[in-house]
Amino acid sequence: MVSEIADISAEDMMSKKVISIDENSTVNEAVTTLRNSNVKYIMVLSGKRYAGIFGYRQLFRIYGKDFQKTVIKPYLSRPPIISQDTKLPQIADKMYRLDLKIIPIGKDGIVSGVITESDIVAKALKSKIFKDIRAQDLMSPEPMTIKHDESLAKALQIMRENDIGRIPVLDKDEKLKGFVESTDIIERFLTQKENYTGLIEMAPSGKESTVDSHSYAPQEISDKKIDISSFMRTDMVIGYPNDEISDIFTPKYTETISTALIEEEGRLIGIISQKDIVRHISALAEKKKMLVWISGISDLDLSDFDIREMYRMIEETASKLSKKTEINAFSVHVKTYKDSGKRMKYSLRCRLSTEKHIFVAGHDSWDLRDAFGQLMDKIERLIIQSWDKKRHDMQESRRQSVYFEGED
Length: 408
Hints:
The chain is about 35% helix and about 25% strand. The protein is of the alpha+beta class and about 400 residues long. The strands form 6 sheets. Strands 11, 16, 17, 18 and 19 form a 5-stranded mixed beta sheet that branches. Strands 6-15-14-13 form a 4-stranded mixed beta sheet. Mean pLDDT is about 80; it is low at about 195-220.
């Protein structure tokens, strides 16, 4: 299956239409370019050479500042340029590992094109690598949700605390009504001149967030009476557990909507984003090499020993579990909060993917090493429970087969 996409290069799929702006442009000029071009990210140049990327994620870093006077240069994201002959699996791998939505293509500092997450998904879906891969194999189960009568501030708080970019909205009967995307909120608030300042305030309850600004959230919008339904999207893509991915992710889908919501018997049971598709491509490209990633620790005061110890615990857990299943990717995201004193609380979320399933676990603690150890125990129990259930189902199937053969 991998061979079908192994020869697809960046040159085959990149867009040569590069929308750019100078690094000394003001935020107001960048926002105007974003809106007029109907894109979420633009290339930033220093003269004719690549300087970085600016988009809605970066806007969070400068809320409260004067958009007319603030220049964008200090707030750029700088993903590396990749060459035109880079193959699709390697592009997907880099995009997934670095948590990118867009990546520049070029050489020697000159950008000749760009590739987006949607480009990768659309190209891969034309191959057969997703044959027999179903929604239940890729979806993130039991997604965070919010009720339709909650405030916009609450939705943003949930997205920030759980490091997610979208959240489904349910009615009073737990039925799906729509979903809210953080980028829609950013566009509505931070690209309207009258809303440039005064909209954001620090988190309540004395908590000081250390989540990076690209985690999609101002801590809270000051007007807590804003109705979430005014930001809710209803142009949903609905899928079911046994639907094939290629039937859900149609060309129209990849162009307009970045999320599929998975239902079973009228109840929301999972969510699939384009990032999940990119992750699967990345994992296929690294079949013999497990992807391991710990995010959210770059701003923490951790020693090299602490970091090595976290990776050691992941590798130790993976080694145990590899006897029961083949692991493609193992990632942990760390978030931190401070209470009213100086204590730091750690909130960890783990995501482990195999060829057919995704397992998610979380744990909070005041001690990082304890939190990591407890998290590894939880994910290990999930895998073992799944493996035991699979073994039980196989034994039951054999028993039924023997029973019916006996009847004949």
